[in-house]
Amino acid sequence: MMFGFVTQFFLRALLPAVAVTVSITAEEVGCFDPVTSPFNKNDWLYCQKISSDDHEVFMYYTPLEDTVLLGFHALKNTEGWTALGINGNGGMKGATFITVREDGGDWIAEDRHAMDYVMPALDDQQDVRLLFAKQENGQTAWGVVIPQNSCDSDGNDYEILDRMTTMLWAVGSSHTFATHTARGQFQANLMQAPKELPSTDELPYFEILMPNVTIKMGEGGTDPTNPYICSYYDLAEIGQSSGFAPEETLHVTRLSAVLSPETKEHVHHMILYACSTDGFSYNGTKHLTVIPECVSMPADCREMKWPWAVGGRDSIFPEKVGLPIGGAMNRFLVLQVHYYNPTLKEGMKDNSGVRVYYTTELLEQEAGVMEFVGGVNSFQQPPLPAGEKSVSISFTTPSECTRNVWDRPLNILGVLHHMHTYGTYMEISVVRDGVNLGNLRPESHYDFRHQSMDEPVPAIRQLWPGDQVTQTCVYDTTNAPGSFVEFGDTTQQEMCYTPIYYYPRQTDADSFGSLIPWLNSSWCLEPATSEEFQSSNSSLCAQTMYENVPLFYRFDKEGELTFDLLTACSGGNEFQDLFYEFPDLCPTCRVTANCTHDDVALHAQNLCATLCNEVNGLSLYPDMNRTKPYQYGNWGCSPTYYHEPYVPDAPVCQARGNANIDFIQLNGIALLDIPNDTLVEANSESTACRKAVIVATCILSVGATLFLSVM
Ligand SMILES: *[C@@H]1O[C@H](CO)[C@@H](O)[C@H](O)[C@H]1NC(C)=O
Ligand SMILES: *[C@@H]1O[C@H](CO)[C@@H](O)[C@H](O)[C@H]1NC(C)=O
Ligand SMILES: *[C@@H]1O[C@H](CO)[C@@H](O)[C@H](O)[C@H]1NC(C)=O
Ligand SMILES: *[C@@H]1O[C@H](CO)[C@@H](O)[C@H](O)[C@H]1NC(C)=O
Ligand SMILES: *[C@@H]1O[C@H](CO)[C@@H](O)[C@H](O)[C@H]1NC(C)=O
Ligand SMILES: *[C@@H]1O[C@H](CO)[C@@H](O)[C@H](O)[C@H]1NC(C)=O
Ligand SMILES: *[C@@H]1O[C@H](CO)[C@@H](O)[C@H](O)[C@H]1NC(C)=O
């Protein structure tokens, strides 16, 4: 099917009359357009339009046995170098680029990589071979062959796998490789035909759109070129116009980004969160209330429902699977939009957001958002030292844990990495039956500005009960001010966090997080010091909690606030907020307002037993069963504490395909059923090609140089 390649190109090259001189109007041109496209269906299996803007770019690709043919075709406005990038996120950081340009009269293809927003450097090992290239009247077309897995770790090359991943294209103004004049990101699976998105005609939907917000950093923000703005949405309100009841649960089947035409290039990423009414005082909150500076989400609105980044396609759930939103517990949603405004353009209003397709007839299965939380606050990770090029933390959810909490294998739909600005790398390795299956989602360099939800690698399409999951986050704190970087919500603090779309949803068993003991261990293990507490054999923990609640729970770092537990449990409305945070803080006598010292002291001792056990992994005085702490805490698990799990080595990279292989070396390795006449017609010296495994390699040796000289 793909072997007419040489003939087609060769003949076309010899017949300039066929060459493209026709002027093109955007709407008419599609993939494999017989007039404009030098790519034909015999040689190139697949085509995907990757940009409709100024350059109108198409990507052509053909997966072969262990290589991939990659083609680029821009219809307009290209005068210099052009590139396709294969990367883990859509940004420059960690991207590997194939750049094609003219160099001293010859066309060359280069394998480059970028670790930051800098000029992509040449890889030491060049894993690309040019098949052909041409540029005429602003149009550019080229084809290359690349291996499916080069194992070139220095150059960050990505293994080409059967998964949807984020890619990019870029064009420059001249043939001297320099900063791009335009670029874009898109998603593709180079091993499969592009998937047509199913029609949405039949589906009911509502839209959650930013209420005409001004793109401008709010008070308290730190980077005016990167405003983060949020808005609240009340499903009770939306239900009135859409026809569902205020507390009805909806099953979302598809989420599509809606971008305002005038401002779309400034919408960098959007995340839809659900708020939990449990603990969320929504009385003051209204539909379409805007939070002008919203790098940190409101505390009760953190359940991620939809992450989207530039170039992201619709999130479509499999048949019979719906993502639940709404219901009594999730009446409010918050949309966070990260705008990018590098030139500080003023007065722009934005109405972007998401179209939510849903059904009220609940589907068989619910999708969930699983979370691995290496750390989002100072209770989960100690601060990172500043001034270090590479600081790594790692957090494991042990095998016993997932075996106890998951009731079946879970299908993984998408994986997002989230750290803040010091984050450079994240990896999630999965160990099953003692074997390390590798990294769930490859991304060679993390980029805060390009957080994309990508599919897992084919080897780990499911997570099974009993899998051990290790999340590793790496930071570069060289430029951090002060001595430490704390874990926390603000952009200047750090996180190590991974939300994962999956199904079927595991109620209450899909969030796992590291835990550092925050109680002073001697509180658990030592007797009380005051006579009152000693006489009842109580612990120092119960006494400390009783005497100073804010100090005990560390919610008043300045130490300005002091009250004891009896006061709190006998007190009035001023403590309402406290009981939202800590609903079990007082015994039931709080309700009837007749708590005694003894009631509260006994309750403190009981609370301490739970806390010492679950927060520190210790028993509570006078019980001295467990006085030595475990090494590892995970709040999503039962039991909570483990000794540090063993992580076997990751599988060694297995190279697949080689762009530089010479056809002569391939001669005789294997016979493919290639029609005898095709190649001969192109070049009679090429009979050896008929015996090659990789047809593309033959083409190189036979047609490419000839073809190029004709160009
Ligand atoms: C947004 O605000 C501008 C200026 O106030 C107004 O002209 C425009 O009509 C508004 N658009 C929408 C969709 O509300
Ligand atoms: C909200 O208001 C209702 C009625 O005024 C009240 O019963 C409820 O306690 C309030 N909820 C919160 C979280 O303040
Ligand atoms: C822990 O508590 C004991 C008893 O109150 C105290 O002496 C010790 O300094 C505390 N340790 C820390 C690290 O705060
Ligand atoms: C306190 O604990 C000790 C040792 O476990 C025990 O002998 C004693 O009876 C206990 N006293 C009270 C008042 O419970
Ligand atoms: C507190 O009040 C409740 C209800 O009136 C009563 O059942 C309970 O015995 C009282 N407790 C004390 C210690 O007086
Ligand atoms: C401590 O040991 C005793 C006796 O073996 C047992 O009854 C008790 O349940 C243990 N406590 C904990 C917290 O394990
Ligand atoms: C190609 O030629 C060889 C020998 O000349 C012959 O055996 C083979 O059947 C031919 N293959 C096809 C597909 O025509």
UniProtKB/TrEMBL annotation:
Q: Which PROSITE patterns match?
A: DOMON
- Tell me if Disulfide bond is a UniProt keyword of this record: yes
InterPro entries reported for this sequence: Cu2_ascorb_mOase-like_C (IPR014784), Cu2_ascorb_mOase_N (IPR000323), Cu2_ascorb_mOase_N_sf (IPR036939), Cu2_monoox_C (IPR024548), DBH-like (IPR000945), DOH_DOMON (IPR045266), DOMON_domain (IPR005018), PHM/PNGase_F_dom_sf (IPR008977)
- What name does the UniProt record give this protein? DOMON domain-containing protein
Specify whether DNA-binding is a keyword of the entry: no
Q: Which UniProt keywords apply?
A: Disulfide bond, Glycoprotein, Signal
Q: CDD domains under this entry? A: DOMON_DOH
Q: Which family does it belong to?
A: Belongs to the copper type II ascorbate-dependent monooxygenase family.
